[in-house]
Amino acid sequence: MSDTIPTQTSRTKTIILVVVAVVLLVATSVGVYGLWFAPKPGQTPPSPSMTTSATSKPTAAPSRPGVDPEGFARLVAATLFDWDTMADTRQQITTKLVAWGDPDGEETAGLVSDIAMYLPDPTTWATLQGYETRQRLDIATVAVPASWPSVVASAGPDQILPGTVAYTISGTRHRDGVVGGKPDSIDRPVAFTMLITCAPAYPTCHLMRLGQPDQPMH
Prior knowledge:
Order of helices and strands: HHEHHHEHEEE
Mean pLDDT: 78
Structural class: alpha+beta
Shape: elongated
Strand content: 15-25%
Helix content: 25-40%
Radius of gyration: 18 Å
């Protein structure tokens, strides 16, 4: 085993401890999904007539991890949100994202739990198949949170791997399906934060963790 691996692992753990303590909360359960995303208590779910059609063309993301942090962040977001229940499976999506995860494997279990927060549970996924449900994300912004420099500063020297950065993604999630034999759809805003590590720590970018949905780092 290389002498550098323990150092990298220690730094990675520090990153996660620092960021999770600040903003990247790990949920203990997956929210209720349907063709419509379950509203928070006190909210009224929007009806299909309240939705708006997508007019902007999504920004293309690369098809595989590279060395560009923002491009990788877009790739992760697209992989996480763009799916078709008639062609994809939860396991396929999870496996793909985990393959881009921590090379040392220290954050693999946590990342799997993070991904589960974003995907319908197996029973709901099967129900969505009955509606021929498809989903996609139109990304509006990809930005490093203004508070990220302070997180790095508070971690101290040599505690965060070079090339580590947080990105907050905001946009609109579009979900389409067939309900009662008729096309139906609904849109909702989404925002979340991811933690990635790129060069010079690793030759290509890697997804370390995902923050809780709709609780982005600012």
